[in-house]
Amino acid sequence: MTTNHVQSTATGIDLDAAFQASNIQPVLAELERELVGLEPVKTRIREIASLLLIARLREQSGMATERPSLHMSFTGRPGTGKTTVAIRMAKILHHLGYVRKGHLVVATRDDLVGQYVGHTAPKTKEVLKRAMGGVLFIDEAYYLYRPENERDYGQEAIEMLLQVMENQRDDLVVILAGYKERMDVFFQSNPGFRSRIAHHIEFPDYTLDELLTIADLMVQQQMYRFDGDARAAFAEYLELRMRQPYFSNARSVRNALDRIKLRQASRLLRQGGTIAPDELSRIDAADVRQSRVFQGGIDK
Predict the structure, then answer these.
(1) Distance of CA 120 to CAs 114, 142, 145, 162, 187, Å?
(2) Taking burial as the number of CB atoms within 10 A of a residue's CB, which of 101, 141, 152, 238 is the most buried?
(3) What is the percent of the chain where pLDDT is above 70?
(4) Which of 222, 240, 204 lies closest to 74, judged by CA?
(5) Residues 114-156: tens digit of each pLDDT
(6) SS3 letters for 185-222?
């Protein structure tokens, strides 16, 4: 956010005008539309956005203001919206002038750590170069640290990241993500990360009702529809699937719907003949109940 965005009057600063000028309201509205549930996460993002806007206004009003620490940790199981929130956070940071570009670069251990001496530094430098001016999102960050293998090169990547997070924090924001328990161990083993991260945000699992709402939205967006029995069958599917291993919240819902569409297409071609156009979009209970989950198997 530049100085000409500050709206001052004879009596003070117009906060409403400054908020509108920052252009973060549409981003927050997008986040609200895109994410079902996750109220604690959305509340925390709004709080961070407010803090950063006020910090900018303080700076532009001539108050001595230390640059807020912007590095973050997102913890939670897969499919809980961490990458989606990271994309929106990059936009918020850009609109408020904390990063130059506002883009998001997603990386994992494979992108950062080499397999032989001298391989890690250029790989990590390349990722950092692409991320400069925006946000670097490191998924499953704990895989960078493998103390059981003394010949592992992850520690070199960690040291380079820590250096950049400290020395170039005006041009790069790092978000570390992964399962909470593993991230806790990672931070205990690498206290340099914990000391540089200001915001720890936990992403809860979705409830059954929230997952059904997500499924309804996905089906609608793809121009399909559940008939009454099919939606009830999908609710049963989710209840069973949520108790099984490898459940990944919204990601598992998307994968399940992809398999249901395959079964629906196969059913239509098997029956052949002439059908009403509406049948191309209708999902029936049989398309759902053919899943292995109903026989005790696992859908991945």
Answers:
(1) 4, 16, 13, 15, 21
(2) 141
(3) 95
(4) 204
(5) 888 788 999 999 999 999 999 999 999 999 988 777 677 888 9
(6) HHHHHCHHHHHHCCEEEECCCCCHHHHHHHHHHHHHHC
